[in-house]
Fold this sequence. Notes:
The complex is a heterodimer of chains A (289) and B (847). Chain A has ten helices and two strands; from the N terminus they run H-H-H-H-H-H-H-E-E-H-H-H. With 289 residues, chain A is mainly alpha-helical. In chain A, strands 1-2 form a two-stranded antiparallel ribbon. In chain A, a hairpin with a 2-residue loop joins strand 1 and strand 2 (203-206). Chain A starts with 7 loop residues before the first helix and ends with a helix. The model of chain A has no long low-confidence stretch (mean pLDDT 92). Chain B is α+β, with helices and mostly antiparallel strands and 847 residues long. In chain B, 29% of the residues lie in helices and 24% in strands. In chain B, strands 1, 2, 5, 6, 7, 8 and 19 form a seven-stranded mixed sheet that branches. Chain B has a five-stranded parallel sheet with strand order 10-17-11-12-13. Chain B starts with 8 loop residues before the first strand and ends with a helix. The A-B interface holds A 1-5, 8, 62-63, 65-70, 74-76, 78-79, 126-127, 130-132, 134-136, 138, 140-144, 148, 151-152, 154-155, 158, 257, 260-261 and B 215-216, 219-221, 680-687, 689, 692-693, 696-697, 707-708, 710-712, 714, 716, 779-780, 783, 791, 819-821, 824, 826-833, 835, 837, 841, 844-845. One iron/sulfur cluster binds at residues 721-724, 727-729, 746, 762, 764, 766-767, 812 of chain B.
Amino acid sequence: MFENILRYRSARYFWWSLALVLVCVGIYVTHGRAEPPNGGTWQGYTLGTVGALLIVWLTWLGVRKRRYGGGVGSVQGWTSAHVYLGTACLVIGSLHSALQFGWNVHTLAYVLMCLVIFSGFFGLYVYVNYPRVLSDNRLGGNRESLFGELFELNERGLALARRCSVQVQQAVNSAIERTVVGGGVWAQLSGADHSRIETEPGKLIPHPDQQLAIDTIASLIPRSEKAQEVVALEELLSVLCRRQTILRRLRHDIRMQGWLQVWLYVHVPVTIALIGALIVHIVTTFFYW
Amino acid sequence: MSPEQHGEQHFGIAIVGSGPGGLSAAARAAFHDRESGAVTPSYVLLEGFSAHAKTIQQYQKGKHVMAEPGFLDLRSDFGFREGTRESILDGWSASLAENTVNIRYGAEVTRISQENHVFTLHTADGGRLTADNVVLGIGTAGNPRKLGVPGENLLLVQYQLDDPDEYRGETIVVVGAGDAAIENALGLSKQNRVIIVNRGAEFSRAKEGNLNAVLAAINNPSLPFDCLYESNVKEVVETPDAKTPLAVTFNTPEGEKTIDCHRLIARLGGVPPRKFVESIGVTFPNDKPDAIPELSRTYETNVPGLYIIGALAGYPLIKQAMNQGYDVVEFIRGNLIKPADHPLLEYQFHCMPFLRDADDVLAMFQQRIPMFRQLNALAFRELLIESNVMVAYPAGPLLVEAQAKLKALQAQLADRNPRPRTPRLIREGDYLYRAGEYAASFFTIIEGEVQVEEDGYSRTLERGQFFGESSLISGRPRIDSARAGASCILIETPRRTMVKLLSSNEEVRAGVDWIFVVRELRRQFAPEAEFTDLREIALACPIRQYRAGEALYAQNDPGDVMHLVRRGSVTLTRAVAGGPETLVAELRSGELVGQMALMGDAVRRETAVASVATETIEIDRRNFLALMNKRGARVESLQRKVSQRLLTISEMEVRQESGNLMRFLMNQGLGEATDTLIINESLCVGCDNCEKACAETHGGISRLNRSAGATFARIHVPVSCRHCEHPHCMKDCPPNALQRAVNGEVFISDACIGCGNCEKNCPYGVIKLAYEAPKKPGLLQWILFGIGSGPGEEAGYQPSKSAKEKGKRAVKCDACMNRRGGAACVAACPTGAAQRLSPEQFIDLLG
Lengths: 289, 847
Ligand SMILES: Cc1cc2nc3c(=O)[nH]c(=O)nc-3n(C[C@H](O)[C@H](O)[C@H](O)COP(=O)(O)OP(=O)(O)OC[C@H]3O[C@@H](n4cnc5c(N)ncnc54)[C@H](O)[C@@H]3O)c2cc1C
Ligand code: HEM
Ligand code: SF4
Ligand code: SF4
């Protein structure tokens, strides 16, 4: 009952697209020897028209996706057809251009189309592969529940530190206070950790993965002289380690979720540029006939 | 000795409670006093609170009060129209003064006794008075439970909270662990320091949504929100000289602890008024918490001279209570007027093939149905007003004539919104319902006959018999089809009315149960047996009830009975020696559990546990054998089903993961679901297009929360309605706005008055109260020019003025019942991650 977009209805749009590509290749090979293949032949015009219509239809997904009141088919069906026909577009566009390139708007349109399509391939890759990883990483919860757990561990960590020496308190307080999750676009996408820690008053150093705090506590345990404190330190160590795992999961979550979204910021604006270039391309073709 | 000689005041009528019912009664009595020129009032209105109509005073500020049911006319000396809480209360205040109503505030009646037909009423402040008649209009809210410790009556110890925004910068102690306490505490924590005090170690009574919210608040370090677990208030003292005016001492697991605060809010639930009512001598039909005392046609109880009106009498709306207040005073005065809802009955009987007064028709109907003969007249009248009357005519001139008559009536009522119920004209041979439809209404035959078809058998039912009980009890779709026979007259009673009747009338419940069992036994075991043949067996098969989580039997127990599930769901788990327990089957109504005990294996091989509230018919060996000896007994098919079951059980036994997933689904309450949104997290990209689609197709408010809810093995159950077999939300909706469509969708009609009962009653936290969302510019405007916030629910939208005036209404998923192409959430998901599943499809999830 659950099928991914590639397998949707036994991949019916794969076969449609394959058929379309074969027909287009068929048209292409009818180019006689008299005239070399190019966009100006009747074959070229046919392929160009098919390609342009296809691009318009592919772009329409953005509208169909938001026509919530209804419309033809389901959005999943549209998306499935979109990825296959979008891929077909690469072949059809290439056939239409007959790979004659130059420094002109025609080639620009082709390049933009390729950009959209390759960004689409990337999107498809993350759509198919990342959700599973994301789900497993969240351990049956969601991002809020991970944050909830983090806050709880922060509280417990701070409370435990209060039962220890000033040195421990400072280390733990500053580690927790200066933990950074997320951040700018790149920080989110790379999962970079900009957390810091105050080792001496006024001295902040990077604190990736909370390792330094953990190591510090671990090294203090055998040296502590008060039995009371040892108990607290041991508990603190376990809290910090759990906190470390949660932080890793959170960064992973933010990173994966970021990639799932960010590619559309290439795919869609370039689509708009493509539509612009396409219009210029068509108009100029007719003008300089 | 007459009471006056004791220095006590004596009245003709004492009205207790100044809710809409009591006010209207007092107004009517005041009217008669004026007419007769009485010097001293012949009645008194006693109100425990410091103002009139406490229930309404306690509505949320500015609440829009609705005048449901729209088709019922108001009959009262006081006015009442749709409007804000304030306008209604002010209107009544003015009327109280204008009519110089004899009302006493702060006069909580604590005891009523009766001697020689005179009632003595005792009030909490030690006062006493006597009366010939007593009208109880005390509602159902009951009085809030108090702390029960020294200081419980201090001014700053409150038992309710109108508006959390009223307090700022205070330290407030909230006592209680239920939804009311949690909601108050969370509301206050926005601008106050809050300490919530829980007697237990967990918030186990709270709804899931509240539970998560309160735990998050307690764990959120940046919120001044703390919790004292396993703690009780020991005493509260005023500390006028300290920085804060109150000091509260608690017993905690670590010993005594005192907290200084500005105020204490205790939300410990209410003491239902039943005990009080019973202490006067009024009997209730049974022990169920929602039982309603039996009343005569004039609202008189079994105690002569004692009358009950309004919510306590089972009429949960303001207009009804007011009409009854008027009528009851007339009745007491011996004026047997027709009640205000009499016209509704007349409309119902408009197309009868005989002409008679509505009251006579009513009496005749009741006489014709053996099961309803015991019912008191008021209850039967109520039943008819809320039911559909159906009249069948053969196609021809008679039908045409009746249709014309009905049209004329409907035209006459056209300006009413909603229109009062009018009869339904049907043709002989028309289907009343078909197998597979969701509907739980209950049919009674007044005249003529009905054909019920099922499994290739067709049976004729006659006058006085009923049908449709199977879906009513199981909550599942119809398993049979029914067709109108020759010139029949039927009453179709909606589920809610029937549920109310079943829980308030023992005879009706027993009657319906008995027929249910007979028909179910026949269906399962002996389809050709005569009805009369099975009656004795049915009486000998008890109905067992199980709470969620309760076991029917355990593995390795000796077994000597089997169960036929009639509502709910039962899971079977099997433990292998040394290994873990595996869930091997889930069984719903109409299925057998533990039949092997009577078919060869006397030891239970599984543990059977009810996963939601469940009822079964228990069949022992003797009865089973008796059934098997009937003509046409289904021995063959039973044996086939057993082998089938054993096969699937052994299959499931080795698929531990599948069993765990099923157990997870059951723990999410899906044992009572009919249609659930499931998200497969291995496909979901988190785009929230499903939520956006929901909001866009439902007035800008999403009814599903995708990311909330539990997940197991990448199967996610978002917070969204699952359209329960027996929807909890329907339980006490005053205007009956929660309905179920033929395809099973549970939805909220326009009649919603925003009381919030459904929100409280839904255990899955899927109903919310919301203002209408503002309209948004069209999609293309957003795409092309970026106007508006884009598709989906606008976070933190500001309701318009008119939306605020209309007030909040309950909103929930309606499974897109009116949308072509099915549920919008599913249709909008680009990756196919969101699907709606029926329980039969759960098994496919297991893969
Ligand atoms: C939140 C909410 C919203 C609602 N919205 C609507 C709506 O929009 N429209 C609608 O029609 N209905 C609405 N209802 C239902 C409506 O409030 C009740 O049906 C109605 O109030 C019932 O009237 P009543 O006279 O029977 O009792 P109540 O209104 O409950 O009045 C009982 C009175 O008796 C007093 N009393 C109780 N015990 C004693 C005693 N021992 N001695 C003296 N006095 C006593 C109480 O203080 C109270 O004033 C709503 C209910 C709730 C809870
Ligand atoms: C010229 C070719 C293409 C054009 C013009 C195009 C255009 C678009 C547009 C306008 C959207 C809507 C985005 C939104 O509104 O959120 C979209 C979405 C998408 N496209 Fe393309 N696309 C093209 C090719 C491809 C290809 C080749 C693939 C993959 C093989 C692809 C994969 C996707 C996917 C996965 C989505 C996201 C669907 C969703 O989340 O709703 N596209 N594309
Ligand atoms: S609103 Fe709640 S109780 Fe009502 S049907 Fe939906 S899930 Fe069940
Ligand atoms: S629409 Fe589908 S993919 Fe998007 S959030 Fe909802 S379930 Fe997930």
